[in-house]
Amino acid sequence: MSRLDSAIRRLQAQQACIDHAAEAIAGLPGPVLELGLGNGRTYDHLRSRLPGREIFVFEREVAAHPDCLPPDSHLILGDFAETLPEAAARFGATVALAHADIGSGDPAASRRSGGLVARFVPPLLRPGGLLLCELELAVPDLQRLPMPRGVEAERYFYYRKPSA
Amino acid sequence: MSRLDSAIRRLQAQQACIDHAAEAIAGLPGPVLELGLGNGRTYDHLRSRLPGREIFVFEREVAAHPDCLPPDSHLILGDFAETLPEAAARFGATVALAHADIGSGDPAASRRSGGLVARFVPPLLRPGGLLLCELELAVPDLQRLPMPRGVEAERYFYYRKPSA
User: Fold this and answer.
1) Which of A44, A49, A105 is the closest to B3 by Cβ?
2) What's the burial of A155, exposed, middle or buried (CB within 10 Å: 0-12/13-18/19+)?
3) Predicted ipTM?
4) Taking the domains of chain B in order of start, what are their residue ranges?
5) Which residue on chain A is closest to B46 by alpha carbon?
6) What is the DSSP letter of B18?
7) What is the distance between the alpha carbons of residues A163 and A160, in angstroms, rounded to a whole number?
8) Torsions phi, psi for A125 (to 5 deg)
9) Which residue on chain A is closest to B106 by alpha carbon?
10) What is the pLDDT of residues A76-100, one digit of tens each?
11) Binning pLDDT at 50, 70 and 90, where does residue B39 land?
């Protein structure tokens, strides 16, 4: 498989998982968190699939396309090591969906971000809340869900906080 | 359509066009030119679909993934404004396929590259040779071909040098 083939499958998995999660949380109140803005492509997808839902974006430094920026009120700037621990005070355990878009060309940086997401995001989810990530996460308190139909296993990772 | 949807369609169009062109030149001798290496994704795709074919890469400054670099003997470094005019002496009119991967976040830079490709690449093609580009090019001496099945019009542009 060429890198072009592989890139297509990765983006299709992202699309399918976000579309599936957006339907799955239709009855679940609470905000959505986008962890890592990058070029803004998945943020744009989240807001297109979840009109009216509050989406908060965590990013160290904004480098997205100008059309794909969240309003300042919904942008939480800073290193995950600081912003994720602080999120508990703001969000409690109300989050319906968190999407961790933390893959990068730097595997060590991705693993570090994955560790922070695994530690600090599960407590923010409400019961039934979902966590999507390109990387496998060590989240023993969450259930791992199977991929939506048509998505290869291991392309994406899909977790759910058990309902009380 | 979100930017994620749009990115998937763009890469699928790239994949479909390259696959189609790779089959179309099966009986046509001559090298392949990749104009713009970028992250190396389409170069990797070209070499996977055209094993044994010589592929020369034109790039201003290499920033590709280390797995996606051409051998030094097949890398032509420099600005298109210099390297494309010089290519006539090296390739004559022998090229079977040129893929111009010149889209970028900077529309003015893309248009400039497109102008250079339109001016200097058609003379390098052998009769029946193909030119693929993400941008529409002003190439009156080439025929515009329809997109392969399943690819939206205007996502990619596909040209052929008439056979003598």
Assistant:
1) A44
2) middle
3) 0.92
4) 3-160
5) A2
6) H
7) 9
8) -75, 145
9) A65
10) 999 999 999 999 999 999 999 999 9
11) confident
Count Cβ atoms within 10 A of the Cβ of residue A163 and give its class: 0-12 exposed, 13-18 middle, 19 or more buried.
Answer: exposed
DSSP chain A: --HHHHHHHHHHHHHHHHHHHHHHTTT--S-EEEE--TTSHHHHHHHHHSTT--EEEEESS--S-GGGPPPGGGEEES-HHHHHHHHHHHHTT-EEEEEE----S-HHHHHHHHHHHHHHSGGGEEEEEEEEESS----TTSEEPPPPTTPPTTSSEEEEPPP-
Would you place residue A118 in the very low, low, confident or very high pLDDT band (cuts 50, 70, 90)? very high
Q: Residue B91 corresponds to which tokens in the numbers above?
A: 């390739």
DSSP state of B149: T
Q: Would strands B55-59 and B32-35 be described as parallel, antiparallel, or unpaired?
A: parallel
Residues of chain A positioned with their CB less than 8 A from the CB of B7: 11, 41
Q: Among all residues of chain B, which has the CA nearest to that of A66?
A: B105
* Residues of chain A with C-beta less than 8 angstroms from the C-beta of B49: 2
Partners of residue B11 in chain A, C-beta under 8 Å: 4, 7-8, 11
Report the distance separating Cα A96 and Cα A76, nearest Å.
Answer: 18
Instruction: Flag if A2 and B105 touch (Cβ within 8 Å).
Output: no
Q: Which of B85, B29, B74 is nearest to B47 (CA)?
A: B74
Collapsing DSSP to helix, strand or coil, B47 comes out as helix
pTM for the model stands at 0.88
Query: At A5, phi and psi to the nearest 5?
Result: -55, -45
Judged by CB atoms closer than 8 Å, whether chains meet at B4 and A41 is answered as yes
Q: Which CATH number fits domain A3-160: 3.40.50.150, 3.90.850.10, 3.90.105.10, 3.40.50.1110?
A: 3.40.50.150
HSE, side-chain direction, 13 A CA sphere, residue A44: 17
Q: What is the number of residues in chain B?
A: 164
Interchain proximity B5–A18, CB inside 8 Å: no
Rounded distance between C-alpha atoms, residue A37 and residue B164, angstroms? 52
